[in-house]
Amino acid sequence: MCLPHYRISDKAICYCVALEEPATPGFFFIGLFFARSWGTGSSFADQISEVGVMAFANHQNEAHRLQRLQAYGILDTATESHFDAITKTAAQILRTPIALLNFIDEAREWCKSAWGMKRKHARRHESICAEALLKGDFLVIPNAGEDAHFSNHPQVTGKRGVVFYVGVVLKTSDGVALGTLCAIDHLPRDVSVEEVDALRTLAANVVGHLECRILSRKLADAEQRLEAAATSRDEFLAMLAHELRAPLAPINTAVELLDTAGASDAQHAWARTVLRRHIRYMSQIVDNLLSTSLVSTGAINLTLNVTQVQAMLDQALELVQTDISRQGHELTMEVDATLYVDADAIQCPLIVANLLRNAATYTPPGGHINVTASADVDIVNYDVRLRDNYDGRSTGVIVAVNWL
């Protein structure tokens, strides 16, 4: 284990550990630790590990960094030729036998691609690449065996340990560190500025590839939403055509009757009643079309809140009670009072009211309208059904997706 430290004396080392706290992100804690066995192996590191001192300083906003890393969906995935080509190129440019593409999560160094060795992972507090993240940009170790900070590092002292290391931090376009692209040798050597710049270019290629994946997924999601919107539009237009066509027949009949010579006053009165009713109905359809257009363009914002189904239906009934009473209809409701939905408290009652008004309009006077609300067996969707006795068919069904 290796911590950022300063040697104070032969028996005292000052270690700096960054603590992540909600109120003070990135706050640095400086602790003074004493070790009798300093320089005699790994026992000192073991002692520190036992009391929970981590071998790395958490980045400022570490939780955000980890969230961003997870969002790329790169962890625990198979090897990919694109990334393997990058590690191969890195090894060739740096003239090293090994190049690695590592990502650092909360507990480990996870290897996506390895050139010159098999992929293997390491605990984060035993990772040189995790140390590179602390540097913020890149880390160069010409000879780890002679480096006071890394000479006892597990990845240096192990079998075929690291001697030369150069790693460039993988940073997103907004500066979030994800991991490193590094080159390793078992012999000491120097690295030029040009070689580090070349490694930076390859690292930028890695991040660019990952960000393109994110954009591709967002584009695919947008295309799906667009297709769904187009389908909804087509369904709405088909429904609108049906609804507008339905009153045309009685309107035409009423007009012909008014033009018929010798029609009685009662027939004229009936024709005028039919015209008024269906003109009012078509006006409501136009209003509904406007409301739908406003919602789809964002002029009306739908606000979802937990709403009792019974209360929503009662509100809808209040809006059309006059229409139902005028026709002398009998209305019954079968609603479980324990049903709740995520719904817009303004728009949803209007939708139900429109269905009720439609039922009242096309049900013969003195008819029966029945409203039921029930939950599916999987408690995912609720059905609100309105049925009248006009030809014994439903005038409308609402299926509310994502209702609680």
From TrEMBL:
UniProt catalytic activity: ATP + protein L-histidine = ADP + protein N-phospho-L-histidine
Gene Ontology molecular function terms on file = phosphorelay sensor kinase activity
Q: Give the EC number(s) listed in the UniProt record.
A: 2.7.13.3
Q: What class of enzyme is it?
A: transferase
Could you tell me which residue ranges the Histidine kinase domain spans?
239-392
CDD domains referenced in this protein's UniProt entry, alphabetically: HisKA (cd00082)
InterPro entries documented for this protein: GAF, GAF-like_dom_sf, HATPase_C_sf, His_kinase_dom, HisK_dim/P_dom, HisK_dim/P_sf
Name of the molecule in the record = histidine kinase
Recorded source organism is Caballeronia sordidicola
Give the taxonomic lineage as stored in the record.
Bacteria, Pseudomonadati, Pseudomonadota, Betaproteobacteria, Burkholderiales
